[in-house]
Amino acid sequence: MKIRFLIVPLACILAGVASAADAQLLKLVMPDAKVVSGIDFDRVKSTPFGQFVLSQLPSGDSGFREFVAVTGFDPRQDIYEVVMASPADVQKKSGLLLVRGRFDGQRILALFKAEGKTVEMYRGVSILSGGQGAHGVANALAFLDGSTVAAGDVASVRTAIDRRSSSVGMDPALADKINRISANQDAWVFSIAPISAFAPVMHGKNAKGALQGDLIQAIEQSSGGIKFGNTIEISGELTARTDKDASSLADVVKFFANMAAMQGSGGNAGQFAALLQSLTVNAEARAVKLFVSIPENDLEALIKLSSGSTRTPRI
């Protein structure tokens, strides 16, 4: 079998979807991070939606079974928590994927070496380097210990290794905000980067233009989270430059939500429109707060409809 980086199965699980974020993972985040997100897989896996996501993964595929057999790593069971971080700088093209779980690093390293892959030693840690990423930056992966993996561009992985013994970490104010939002959410994201800063990496002139509009440029920070259960609660908050900007932004969000709700008719559009009926949008000073609750069974149905899934429902 052709062994691939563990980024592949990790990405598969992330595509399918806390107690406060793990302090040891946050310590590895770069000091200039502006966008940080995470998922508490231990908690999500115990929820009805988590079980549904696991049931959709290709566990019966022979390639997947072979991967688990030769690496001793089953992403369905062996991932406990994930934190992702980026400085949100299109010039740096850097980022980190930090994973807390259960890994047989020596076994996986032996498999890579057997395939003739080059393993770099950096401060006592083996770094596996791969091909070029989406932005022409070399990818890397390192087993920091038996329960922690760091993946991303080579420079970011090396500096994460450096921070294991360093007192320099992310901005304390940002860390405090992350701890507060992650304490009540199973999946979360926090960004102190203006949304308009992402315009250069968007594909298509329309998307770039939308992110460079006056109201979008007024958004200075954003955050969001998902709490899984029989009812899935999705919340978000946008921080604008002024109270007036926040009020205008809330009105625009309400307008487009109402338009989408009215135009939905049957199929995916109809189901999505029905979900929007529970969306609430409120402006409070400079903050625009959004909240929507979705019955877990309805979200499953929407995903199955979108993917054309014919899997047997859970019992």
Beta percentage is 25-35%
- Our count of domains comes out at 2
**Which stretches are low in confidence, meaning pLDDT under 50 for 5 or more residues running?**
1-18, 310-315
Rounded average pLDDT: 81
What is the helix tally? 14
Describe the structure in your own words.
This protein folds into two domains: 7-163, no CATH class; 194-307, no CATH class. The two termini are 34 Å apart. Helix content is 41%, strand content 27%. It has helices at residues 7-16, 23-27, 41-45, 48-56, 62-71, 75-78, 105-114, 154-163, 172-182, 205-211, 214-217, 243-263, 267-276, 296-307, and strands at 35-40, 79-86, 96-101, 119-122, 125-132, 138-145, 148-153, 187-191, 219-227, 231-240, 280-284, 287-295. Residues 1-18 and 310-315 have low confidence and may be disordered. The protein has 315 residues and is α+β, with helices and mostly antiparallel strands. It has a twelve-stranded antiparallel β-sheet, with helices on both faces. It has 14 helices and twelve strands.
